[in-house]
Amino acid sequence: MSVARAIRKRCRAAVPPLVFLALAGYFGWSATQGDRGLNSYVQRQSDLVLATKELARAEADRAVWDRRVSSLRPAHLDADALDERGRAMLNLSEPNDIVVPYQPGQKLF
Predict the structure, then answer these.
(1) How many helices (H) and strands (E) in the chain?
(2) Which helix (H) or strand (E) holds 76?
(3) Is there a domain that residue 8 lies in?
């Protein structure tokens, strides 16, 4: 009887530390491997860098298009820009125009 009582007493004494150790292990694992853990933080930071680069590229594209379109706005219609765009879209030229050929991969703007 006294052996069983001693075993039961030691088990009761060991249960609370084991529970707290299990909780600490769970929170430690979540801090590194969980949805909001350190590994996930590193992944989010790399995604942020990629998104920042994509944003910079999109803003550069928008600036190019804003510059191209700014002279075609109704408040400031530039006849030369309108003539240039019309000729480029229709693939036409005047007989006295000087045509400068570009390489296929070279951008005009």
Answers:
(1) 3, 2
(2) strand 76-77
(3) no
- 3-class DSSP assignment, residue 44: helix
The answer to whether the CB of 58 falls within 8 A of the CB of 66 is no
Report yes or no on 64 lying in a domain: yes
For residue range 71-90, list pLDDT tens digits in order.
677 777 777 777 887 887 88
Q: Reduce the DSSP state of residue 25 to 3 states and report it.
A: helix
On whether residue 90 sits in a domain, the answer given is yes
**Mean pLDDT per 10-residue section of the chain, whose length is 109 residues:** 84 90 91 85 94 96 86 73 80 78 72
pLDDT for position 108: 65
**Domain-embedded: residue 37:** no
What is the domain extent for residue 87? Answer: 50-94
Work out whether the CA dihedral 3, 4, 5, 10 comes out positive or negative: positive
Grouping H, G, I as helix, E, B as strand and the rest as coil, residue 65 is helix
